Protein: Ribosomal protein uS12 methylthiotransferase RimO
Organism: Aureibaculum marinum
Amino acid sequence: MRTKSTKQNKINVVTLGCSKNVYDSEVLMGQLKANNKNVVHEDENDDGNIVVINTCGFIGKAKEESINTILHYAHKKENGEVDKVFVTGCLSERYKPDLEKEIPDVDAYFGTHDLPNLLKVLEADYKHELLGERLTTTPKHYAYLKIAEGCDRPCSFCAIPLMRGKHVSTPIEKLVEEADILAKKGIKELILIAQDLTYYGLDIYKKRALADLLLALVKVEGIEWIRLHYAFPTGFPLDVLEVMKNEPKICNYLDIPLQHINTEILKSMRRGTTHEKTVGLIEKFREAVPEMAIRTTLIVGYPGETDEIFEELKDWVKATRFDRLGAFAYSHEENTHAASLIDDVPEEVKEKRVSEIMEIQSQISFELNQEKVGKTFKCIFDRKEGNYFFGRTEFDSPDVDNDVIVDAREHYVQLGQFVDVKITEAGDFDLQGEPVAVL
Ligand code: SF4
């Protein structure tokens, strides 16, 4: 691969989108490192002469961010600041022919299942023996564990199956091997991810096997917290609740995007569930694991969401009091089932509905946080910024949930270490506290 600069090539990998993309970038970087390539992740000097952009193609805003990032580096290439620009990931998988036409300065575009070819243009060989090994980009004490790729669900609004393909589970023994490698590197917290975590095993074991996987992972020495992200409501494997209840390593935490509550909207979204079933499922969670923190995601402004239906959604959010909640405006995505519907909710109404839901949630979160004041929680600390250490309880996932903040001028906590923290004050999305014991 001919490049203008005489010094050794430096490959800068830039990741956009979700934790699954982070995982894929880490696998790519692990392969490049094993080929003795000088590879960095989102280099703060931004002086890599070769750039690989791992894009997101999920919804409007994410696509925009990916295109702007590609244009940014294509521009740097034009200015001679960068020699090569390669693009991979979901946007490239979904729009390769258009991108090749629209932004021809990019040296090559790759899909989401194209790692060996991407490595080839980077003069690296794909090393099978590295399966389960990667260069993690998260703080040294936690890592994502992708347990499956793709999705078989028919959700009307979602383009992910178009970009990620069919659901493919990774066998339990492979995941245990990977967890063991991570634990030996000092990882204490595993965050389990997939497009649909609860579909795990249906392809390779012909049954929902998430509970079996969890029972295998809790045996991995060194792993202390296992967190579940991206569960799906319909066909939820209730045996997972038993494992969560009985196994202290499984965080009492569940991320389950529910998207909506109105039965007609859920039907149009092809979610395979109803208002009543959804309410019933949440009740089952709270009966089985009363202290479980439930995180969900909602889409507002979906075609046909009248003011009345939106009132139903708001009332349900107020009544359910989720511990963590995110809301997004519906994005009309071509080639999805919903693309044939009329996108009848104006953008400004969608945005207004997102703010209304988040307003309700911030009040709920504030009230729930007040109940934590005076109590002590096992926490792990991720970073120090300025005069403060930032950590999390088992009820908080990195980057999306509450921070536990400790004043570094008065206290010292070691990053990556478990510490008991007494909560002294609480806001809507953060807690302040004092360390009381190192664990
Ligand atoms: S479960 Fe539904 S929303 Fe999630 S990735 Fe699959 S199709 Fe998309």
Q: What stands out?
A: The longest strand covers residues 376-385. The chain has a mean pLDDT of 96.
